[in-house]
Amino acid sequence: MTDANDTLPTPGKASPDDESGRGLALVAAPEDDWGAAIRERGVGKEVLCELVITPRP
Asked: Residue ranges per domain, the chain?
């Protein structure tokens, strides 16, 4: 994911009434690793996640 904001994300906890603050929770729930960095080209940042897929037996 990318956006034009240069502020790197920090994990937080959104309450049920909050209208924002769930992005990292959605990325972190199914993933094995994640990270964020200021974009080398352009404006803003990018957030990346890694998913390890285990085949079913």
From this structure: 2-50
